[in-house]
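Name: Related to epoxide hydrolase
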Amino acid sequence: MPFKAVIFDIGGVVVGSPLFAINKYEKEHGLPFQYLNVAITAQGHDGAFQKFERSEMDLYTFYRRFGEELSNVEKNNEAYTKFCKSRGQEVPKLPNKLHVDGRELFGQMMRFSSQVDPKMRTAITRLKASGKFTIAALTNNFASPTEVPSDAQGSALKAPSLEEELEHLGLGQSHYELRKMFDFYIESAVVGKRKPDPEFYKHALDLLKVQASDVVFLDDIGPNLKSAQKLGITTIRVDSSDSTPALAQLSKLTGVQLLDDAPRPSSKL
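Structure predicted for Related to epoxide hydrolase:
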């Protein structure tokens, strides 16, 4: 059966991965590789990052809570120790104390993930031009700030203006151009659910008026892909450092030439 829709994750797929910005922050602050990423995941369903992506927390409360959670060395050292042992890795020296500025880190994450992968841009353009597919984004994101409270908990002594805060988060013109690339731009902050919650995928299927078997879904995170697979969605894992293999696979599935230096796919549609 021919596919009717292609759904793309955004961060780490269409744009740079915020994980790289986290790794850079870790290196700059003498933290073990993946320490903060493990800490974010360890907060679970009710962590600041997770709640923020469901619009259950405003930006400035998030900055404060995010920083507090990532500065909790007792909890995060325990989580990282388990992480290392589960992979048979030696546990490196862990911090005795830590102060993570939530606004500074999150800003770095968002600015790093604001640049579109040129290969992905070309692929999306060609898929749309074929006229065969609905093109959608399914992203865990956050609601853009619309005002800055006088007591905003930022890094600066004086609260930044709204324009400064949007720039800090990489929400300039390029962000709005990114959204225009898709027929549907489906956001966790709007829906109130986030990947890998199956209900978030079901919402997307309903919105696009397609069945799970009609869809190819691209993401860079394993649990997000597994959740989609359980619903019957065909998935492709994207390597955030090189999208070429994923796009070659997508070309074969769609029958559309997505890479310039690749054999023309033989469509099964």
